[in-house]
């Protein structure tokens, strides 16, 4: 029961990161992809997912750290440390990138 409650809290935190993370990652992916000579949907999705895992996640976590620090108390009271919640958000954000890369490599799409 406690395990399920914690999983829900990890999911809630991750969903809260998407409000800032997704627009930043899509915009950054678009800017990076349009700067290349070969513009394609595959390169756009790859760049967007890389930005989602890295830069956009860091920007979102900095925003939370500076403006919404008190949110961490909610998770701390549920027995989840700040570092656990941050690391879980990073690991969860990597999952779509790994799945996308597996699908691309299995389908031999270049």
Written overview of the protein:
The protein has one domain (22-106). The chain is built from five helices and no strands. 83% of the residues lie in helices and 0% in strands. The model has no long low-confidence stretch (mean pLDDT 89). The radius of gyration is 16 Å and the shape is flat. The protein has 110 residues and is an all-alpha fold. It has helices at 2-34, 41-53, 55-67, 71-77, 82-106.
Number of helices: 5
Low-confidence stretches: none
Biggest sheet overview: none
General shape? flat
- Tally of extended strands? 0
Terminal CA distance: 45 Å
**SSE string:** HHHHH
Fraction of residues in H or I helices: over 70%
**Structural class from helices and strands?**
mainly alpha
Q: Classify the beta-strand content into a percent band.
A: under 5%
Number of domains: 1
Rg: 16 Å
Give the rounded overall mean pLDDT.
89
What keyword list fits this structure?
mainly alpha
Short description:
With 110 residues, the protein is an all-alpha fold. The chain is 83% helix and 0% strand.
């Amino acid at each position: 029961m406690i395990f399920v409650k914690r999983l829900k809290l990890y999911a809630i935190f991750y969903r809260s990161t998407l409000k800032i993370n997704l627009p930043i990652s899509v915009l950054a992916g678009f800017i990076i992809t349009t700067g290349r000579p070969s513009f394609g949907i595959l390169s756009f999705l790859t760049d967007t997912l890389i930005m989602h895992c890295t830069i956009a996640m860091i920007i979102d976590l900095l925003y939370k750290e500076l403006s919404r620090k008190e949110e961490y108390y909610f998770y701390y009271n549920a027995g989840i440390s700040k570092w656990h919640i941050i690391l879980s958000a990073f690991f969860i954000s990597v999952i779509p990138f790994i799945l996308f890369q597996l699908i691309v490599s299995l389908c031999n799409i270049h």
